[in-house]
Predict the structure.
Amino acid sequence: VDTNKISDRIKQLVIEEFSKEDEKEEPTWVVGFYTSGTNRVKLKNGYANSHYTTHETFHFLTDLKLNYPNLIFQLDLGNKLSKFINEGLTEYLTREFEKSNTGSEYVDYSYPQNVDFVEFLHKILGDSLIKAYFTYSSVDFLEDFSTYITEDGNPNRKAFEDFNNSLENVHWLLHGKKETKEQEEIEDKEKYVNEVCIPIIKKSIENIVCNAIRKKAHDLEYYNDGVLEIKKLKDDIFKLRDNLRIFEKNKDFDFSSLEFAKLLENIYRKTLTIALQESHVQSGKIEDIVNRLVDPMEYEEGLDPSNKPYSSMTGARIKIELLQQVHDDINGKNTDEELMAHTKSLIDKRLGNKDNYNGNGHFNITAFLMDTSLILDKMNIKEDLRQVIMESIMFRYLPKDVNRDLVKTMLDKYSKLYVTLYQKQQFNKRNVIDSKFIRINDTEFIEKRDNKIFFLSYDEKTGTFSEQEINDGYQIKGYSKEAIERFGGKVCKRSYERKVRRRTNYKL
């Protein structure tokens, strides 16, 4: 977030007291409001030092009409976060600001249902959600967001729009219904929200949790020295389960006790299945392992005095007492032979899908190097066995027109670099809204991160990247911010002696 722009904007803010006309026009429950496209916040007498001032100031700072006056799709829900999330983020940040400002955990705040939902999202998506709020949002952020709410974890614009539209209608049901005068219109919309929107949101909540595990499993975060740590996976599932408790208590999303119990059972089964699918475990064994680990929910149908659709219920659980046994069965004794077999299985699953590396008719060598390096690093293969595996990888998975000797040299020399680069990419997805890397040479990169540009240099001794921002009027090794911006992310160098422009464009 560009704090300089926020500082410049906030100097223009004017806070006024309600006029008599405002008092007449606005509903009695409104104590303050910000009118889009202006620089004025209006508050009722006595509320100037309340959290409403902070709330409306956030609206002013993130106003589309003032920040992006030329946008023609300002009202298109497919291109921005829904009003439900927008108000939730506004009040969520207001709450946190007030806590910091007062030093107290107990502060007044509005839109509790929206805030609960946003807090749930923030814990999973990270600060990219808040940066998207302050900077309007971006195609990259919305695409990544959509990978959380889909069943298979792939980006899906239509799924995002359905999710966004459903939240928009829930916001109306919770906060806008009182402004609608026609009773028939209210009843029709309530029916639509309950029958169409709420089921979409419930399914999205389940998918968000499952895809959070999918992404960590894909990054091999549950591996350590060649061992798949099933206990660590269980701990992550339980943390996400605990994040869901707000929906169990929040009746506005209409989770019955039975329905919430079924949600947890689905999550237990799906997250374990997804994580094992990303592991070395053979596909034919996954269902049996999940059945061993998950104790299903049991309930008896019937009617009781409170009209619940069941008379007794025992919730599903992960059998913690079996975790060590399953861990041993999955990993064996971790001998060299087993480690080789597990690594080969992991490589087959990961590198066997050549579509992951083919884009615009070109094989993406950098992505291939990152995935291969990550597997070799996580499996901690001994050097002699590592060479055997790399030879197999070169033969089986690289296209014939790719320079195999070059790829093998890069793996030998810069494997740690590509692991670090991969991890940096995944970290950025949670903390920035736009991040693109451009390779200059073997150890140096340019990163376009949100509204800044950095020169990255890998230090082999420390295994980390140092970074230096490329500011206006300043260049590093011939690369200026202006040149990088002008050529849309392509790193270009100019040979002034021969007046020949040579371009090198390596995309990750």
In short: The CA atoms of residues 206 and 266 lie 8 Å apart.
